[in-house]
Amino acid sequence: MEYHDDEALSPSASSSSAANNNNSDQFDHQHHLDDDDARVAMIRAIQNEVELLERAARHDHIVSYYGSMITAEHHKLALVMEYVSGGSLASIVRRQKGLRDSVIRAYGRDVLLGLQYLHEVCRMCHRDIKPDNILVTPEGRCKLADFGASRALERTALLKTCVGTPYYMAPEVVQGEGYDESADIWSFGATLFEMASGKPPFADISNGMAVMFRVATLGKLPDIPTPNSTSTSSSSSTNPLLAD
């Protein structure tokens, strides 16, 4: 079984902010063009990402795509994206160790509007929804980012590749049953879980494969704790999204 995390998704990729390991600081996504085989595979992946970005980046809750270029000095292909200075949702959640219910509702609404546009208008599945891939503007609005794992949806065929980040992957993705855009909604539910609790589901498990096994076999995810004055409404609204 294959799965991709942030590094495995593009093993020869780097960005101008790689040292910070923070998507919110990423202005361009640079791909090294190394040997011939890697170059062909990477170019195909980049072509797919660019095509999807061009389709998706016309919405208030999706990060804007400005274009691409080959850098003259290092011969890298750079995707030039909107700079969102407010930081990633992940950094905000980790800093505050969980968010207030009112903030969860506001952020959740923005993410759902972005997903609705992706699914219904662009006919695509993001496949890696998680706090690291949601950027927050200084005004407190959320934007979906990082479309490296995304794929177009077909009306007559399900997606098959096991791709994403284990803590946020839907059971049908892990099990290889075939899936559609509903897998993004599971990932959104796991993201709400993290917003409420400060940690992703199954944060006590450090091994990605072990997390995938738990998701595939348990049939449910844990109830959401409510620290930092979050109310029971956040728990009750999120748990249905995480139902098998």
From TrEMBL:
List the coiled-coil residues: none
Q: Name one GO molecular function term.
A: protein serine/threonine kinase activity
- Listed name of the protein: Protein kinase, putative
Q: State if rRNA-binding is listed as a keyword.
A: no
Composition-biased stretches, type Low complexity, lie in: 9-25, 226-244
- UniProt keywords, alphabetically: ATP-binding, Kinase, Nucleotide-binding, Serine/threonine-protein kinase, Transferase
Q: Where is this region: Disordered?
A: 1-31, 224-244
Q: Say which species the protein is native to.
A: Bodo saltans
Recorded superkingdom: Eukaryota
Q: Which PROSITE patterns does UniProt cross-reference here? A: PROTEIN_KINASE_DOM (PS50011), PROTEIN_KINASE_ST (PS00108)
